[in-house]
Amino acid sequence: MKNSKLKNSLTALVLLFTLIGFSQDKNPNVVPLEVFYTKIKSQKKPQIIDARGADEFALNHINGAVNFNLQSENYAKHIASLDKSKPVFIYSIGAGRSVALEKELLKNGFKEAYSLEGGIANWIGNGKPFYANSKSKLSLTEYNKIIADNNTVLVDIGSKYCAPCKKVKPILETIRAQYGSNLKIVEIELEDSPQVIADLKTINVFPTLLLYKKGKIIFKKEGISDLKNDLDVALN
After folding, report:
1. 140-235 in CATH: which number?
2. Hey, which residues are catalytic here?
3. Domain spanning 25-132, CATH architecture
4. 150-190 pLDDT tens trace
Protein backbone atom coordinates (compact mmCIF):
# COMPACT_ATOMS: atom_id res chain seq x y z
CA MET A 1 0.00 0.00 0.00
CA LYS A 2 2.81 2.38 0.95
CA ASN A 3 4.68 1.52 -2.24
CA SER A 4 1.54 2.27 -4.24
CA LYS A 5 1.10 5.67 -2.60
CA LEU A 6 4.78 6.48 -3.13
CA LYS A 7 4.51 5.48 -6.80
CA ASN A 8 1.42 7.66 -7.29
CA SER A 9 3.15 10.61 -5.60
CA LEU A 10 6.21 10.26 -7.80
CA THR A 11 4.02 10.03 -10.91
CA ALA A 12 2.19 13.21 -9.88
CA LEU A 13 5.49 15.05 -9.31
CA VAL A 14 6.83 13.99 -12.72
CA LEU A 15 3.61 15.21 -14.37
CA LEU A 16 3.78 18.51 -12.48
CA PHE A 17 7.37 19.21 -13.52
CA THR A 18 6.56 18.21 -17.11
CA LEU A 19 3.70 20.70 -17.21
CA ILE A 20 5.84 23.42 -15.63
CA GLY A 21 8.58 22.79 -18.19
CA PHE A 22 6.08 22.90 -21.04
CA SER A 23 4.61 26.19 -19.85
CA GLN A 24 8.08 27.71 -19.58
CA ASP A 25 9.02 26.57 -23.10
CA LYS A 26 5.85 27.93 -24.68
CA ASN A 27 6.47 31.38 -26.15
CA PRO A 28 3.55 33.68 -25.23
CA ASN A 29 4.44 35.95 -28.14
CA VAL A 30 3.75 33.24 -30.73
CA VAL A 31 0.04 33.85 -31.17
CA PRO A 32 -2.84 32.15 -33.01
CA LEU A 33 -4.08 33.58 -36.30
CA GLU A 34 -7.18 35.34 -34.96
CA VAL A 35 -5.20 37.05 -32.19
CA PHE A 36 -2.55 38.14 -34.69
CA TYR A 37 -5.18 39.36 -37.16
CA THR A 38 -7.23 41.20 -34.52
CA LYS A 39 -4.17 42.99 -33.17
CA ILE A 40 -3.17 44.06 -36.68
CA LYS A 41 -6.67 45.38 -37.37
CA SER A 42 -6.55 47.43 -34.14
CA GLN A 43 -3.60 49.47 -35.49
CA LYS A 44 -3.98 52.41 -37.88
CA LYS A 45 -0.59 51.71 -39.46
CA PRO A 46 0.44 48.22 -38.36
CA GLN A 47 4.14 47.34 -38.43
CA ILE A 48 4.18 43.99 -40.27
CA ILE A 49 7.42 42.18 -41.03
CA ASP A 50 7.81 39.28 -43.45
CA ALA A 51 10.90 37.48 -42.14
CA ARG A 52 11.26 35.18 -45.16
CA GLY A 53 13.73 35.57 -48.01
CA ALA A 54 13.33 38.27 -50.65
CA ASP A 55 12.41 35.73 -53.35
CA GLU A 56 9.64 34.28 -51.15
CA PHE A 57 8.33 37.76 -50.33
CA ALA A 58 8.23 38.72 -54.01
CA LEU A 59 5.87 35.84 -54.77
CA ASN A 60 3.33 36.45 -52.00
CA HIS A 61 3.00 38.26 -48.69
CA ILE A 62 0.60 39.86 -46.24
CA ASN A 63 -0.63 43.22 -47.49
CA GLY A 64 1.42 46.08 -46.05
CA ALA A 65 4.35 43.95 -44.92
CA VAL A 66 8.02 44.92 -45.25
CA ASN A 67 10.63 42.24 -45.85
CA PHE A 68 13.71 41.62 -43.70
CA ASN A 69 15.13 39.21 -41.15
CA LEU A 70 18.18 38.88 -38.89
CA GLN A 71 20.40 38.01 -41.86
CA SER A 72 19.37 40.96 -44.05
CA GLU A 73 22.14 43.35 -45.10
CA ASN A 74 19.90 46.37 -44.41
CA TYR A 75 18.71 45.01 -41.05
CA ALA A 76 19.82 48.07 -39.03
CA LYS A 77 18.12 50.45 -41.45
CA HIS A 78 14.82 48.57 -41.19
CA ILE A 79 14.98 48.45 -37.39
CA ALA A 80 15.63 52.20 -37.24
CA SER A 81 12.48 52.84 -39.26
CA LEU A 82 10.25 51.04 -36.73
CA ASP A 83 8.50 52.59 -33.72
CA LYS A 84 9.61 50.68 -30.60
CA SER A 85 6.57 51.90 -28.65
CA LYS A 86 4.12 50.19 -31.02
CA PRO A 87 3.48 46.48 -31.69
CA VAL A 88 5.42 44.65 -34.38
CA PHE A 89 3.82 41.71 -36.20
CA ILE A 90 6.17 39.12 -37.69
CA TYR A 91 5.66 35.98 -39.78
CA SER A 92 7.70 33.54 -41.87
CA ILE A 93 7.03 30.23 -43.65
CA GLY A 94 6.50 28.57 -40.26
CA ALA A 95 7.71 30.19 -37.07
CA GLY A 96 11.51 29.86 -37.17
CA ARG A 97 12.79 33.14 -38.60
CA SER A 98 9.84 35.11 -37.20
CA VAL A 99 10.42 33.88 -33.63
CA ALA A 100 14.15 34.63 -33.86
CA LEU A 101 13.42 38.19 -34.99
CA GLU A 102 10.62 38.66 -32.43
CA LYS A 103 12.94 37.66 -29.58
CA GLU A 104 15.68 39.99 -30.85
CA LEU A 105 13.31 42.95 -31.03
CA LEU A 106 11.98 42.39 -27.51
CA LYS A 107 15.53 42.06 -26.22
CA ASN A 108 16.39 45.42 -27.79
CA GLY A 109 13.67 47.56 -26.30
CA PHE A 110 10.58 46.98 -28.42
CA LYS A 111 7.44 47.11 -26.30
CA GLU A 112 5.50 44.40 -28.16
CA ALA A 113 6.42 41.86 -30.83
CA TYR A 114 4.28 38.96 -32.01
CA SER A 115 5.05 35.98 -34.22
CA LEU A 116 2.27 34.29 -36.20
CA GLU A 117 1.70 30.65 -35.30
CA GLY A 118 1.83 28.63 -38.51
CA GLY A 119 3.28 31.54 -40.47
CA ILE A 120 2.13 32.50 -43.96
CA ALA A 121 0.49 29.07 -44.36
CA ASN A 122 -1.91 29.91 -41.55
CA TRP A 123 -2.67 33.39 -42.90
CA ILE A 124 -3.31 32.47 -46.53
CA GLY A 125 -4.68 29.04 -45.64
CA ASN A 126 -7.53 30.62 -43.70
CA GLY A 127 -8.46 33.16 -46.34
CA LYS A 128 -6.91 36.34 -44.92
CA PRO A 129 -6.07 39.06 -47.49
CA PHE A 130 -2.69 38.77 -49.22
CA TYR A 131 -0.69 39.89 -52.24
CA ALA A 132 0.35 37.45 -54.97
CA ASN A 133 2.39 38.39 -58.02
CA SER A 134 0.56 35.97 -60.34
CA LYS A 135 -2.72 34.14 -60.76
CA SER A 136 -3.00 30.67 -59.24
CA LYS A 137 -2.33 27.83 -61.69
CA LEU A 138 -5.10 25.79 -60.07
CA SER A 139 -8.54 27.28 -59.35
CA LEU A 140 -10.98 26.09 -56.71
CA THR A 141 -13.36 24.99 -59.50
CA GLU A 142 -10.63 22.82 -61.05
CA TYR A 143 -9.69 21.48 -57.62
CA ASN A 144 -13.28 20.49 -56.86
CA LYS A 145 -13.56 18.77 -60.25
CA ILE A 146 -10.50 16.62 -59.46
CA ILE A 147 -12.06 15.65 -56.14
CA ALA A 148 -15.40 14.85 -57.80
CA ASP A 149 -13.89 12.87 -60.68
CA ASN A 150 -11.77 10.55 -58.54
CA ASN A 151 -12.88 8.15 -55.83
CA THR A 152 -9.79 8.56 -53.63
CA VAL A 153 -7.61 11.68 -53.73
CA LEU A 154 -4.58 12.57 -51.63
CA VAL A 155 -3.75 16.30 -51.66
CA ASP A 156 -0.33 17.52 -50.50
CA ILE A 157 -0.27 21.25 -49.71
CA GLY A 158 3.02 23.00 -48.98
CA SER A 159 5.78 25.25 -50.26
CA LYS A 160 9.08 24.72 -52.04
CA TYR A 161 10.67 26.89 -49.33
CA CYS A 162 9.37 24.67 -46.51
CA ALA A 163 12.01 22.16 -45.33
CA PRO A 164 9.54 19.58 -43.92
CA CYS A 165 7.53 19.80 -47.17
CA LYS A 166 10.54 18.48 -49.10
CA LYS A 167 10.55 15.36 -46.91
CA VAL A 168 6.98 14.60 -47.98
CA LYS A 169 7.97 14.10 -51.64
CA PRO A 170 9.76 10.72 -51.34
CA ILE A 171 6.94 9.45 -49.12
CA LEU A 172 4.44 10.42 -51.83
CA GLU A 173 6.48 8.52 -54.41
CA THR A 174 6.31 5.41 -52.24
CA ILE A 175 2.57 5.86 -51.77
CA ARG A 176 2.11 6.38 -55.53
CA ALA A 177 3.97 3.17 -56.34
CA GLN A 178 2.10 1.26 -53.63
CA TYR A 179 -1.46 2.28 -54.53
CA GLY A 180 -1.10 2.98 -58.25
CA SER A 181 -4.20 4.03 -60.19
CA ASN A 182 -6.43 3.49 -57.14
CA LEU A 183 -5.19 6.78 -55.72
CA LYS A 184 -5.04 10.21 -57.33
CA ILE A 185 -2.27 12.37 -55.83
CA VAL A 186 -2.39 16.16 -56.19
CA GLU A 187 0.52 18.38 -55.12
CA ILE A 188 -0.18 22.08 -54.49
CA GLU A 189 2.50 24.64 -53.67
CA LEU A 190 1.97 28.11 -52.25
CA GLU A 191 4.18 29.65 -54.92
CA ASP A 192 2.04 28.31 -57.78
CA SER A 193 -1.51 28.28 -56.43
CA PRO A 194 -1.96 30.52 -53.37
CA GLN A 195 -5.58 31.36 -54.11
CA VAL A 196 -6.85 27.78 -54.04
CA ILE A 197 -5.09 27.34 -50.68
CA ALA A 198 -6.86 30.47 -49.46
CA ASP A 199 -10.21 29.31 -50.85
CA LEU A 200 -10.01 25.98 -49.02
CA LYS A 201 -9.84 27.82 -45.66
CA THR A 202 -8.57 24.70 -43.93
CA ILE A 203 -4.75 25.01 -43.94
CA ASN A 204 -2.96 26.04 -40.74
CA VAL A 205 0.59 24.82 -41.35
CA PHE A 206 2.82 23.42 -44.10
CA PRO A 207 2.84 20.63 -44.99
CA THR A 208 -0.81 19.58 -44.74
CA LEU A 209 -2.18 16.46 -46.41
CA LEU A 210 -5.87 15.90 -47.09
CA LEU A 211 -7.31 12.53 -48.04
CA TYR A 212 -10.68 12.53 -49.83
CA LYS A 213 -12.95 9.56 -50.42
CA LYS A 214 -16.04 10.09 -52.57
CA GLY A 215 -15.67 13.86 -52.22
CA LYS A 216 -15.35 13.94 -48.42
CA ILE A 217 -12.25 14.61 -46.33
CA ILE A 218 -11.68 11.47 -44.28
CA PHE A 219 -8.15 12.27 -43.07
CA LYS A 220 -6.12 15.41 -42.42
CA LYS A 221 -2.45 15.35 -41.50
CA GLU A 222 -0.38 18.37 -40.42
CA GLY A 223 3.39 17.83 -40.45
CA ILE A 224 5.37 14.72 -41.35
CA SER A 225 5.56 12.75 -38.09
CA ASP A 226 4.57 9.10 -38.79
CA LEU A 227 3.20 10.25 -42.14
CA LYS A 228 3.63 6.96 -44.05
CA ASN A 229 2.03 4.87 -41.30
CA ASP A 230 -0.84 7.30 -40.86
CA LEU A 231 -1.51 7.35 -44.60
CA ASP A 232 -1.48 3.56 -44.80
CA VAL A 233 -4.01 3.36 -41.96
CA ALA A 234 -6.24 6.00 -43.58
CA LEU A 235 -6.04 4.37 -47.02
CA ASN A 236 -6.88 0.94 -45.67
Report:
1. 3.40.30.10
2. 162, 165
3. 3-Layer(aba) Sandwich (3.40)
4. 999 999 999 999 999 999 999 999 999 999 999 999 999 99
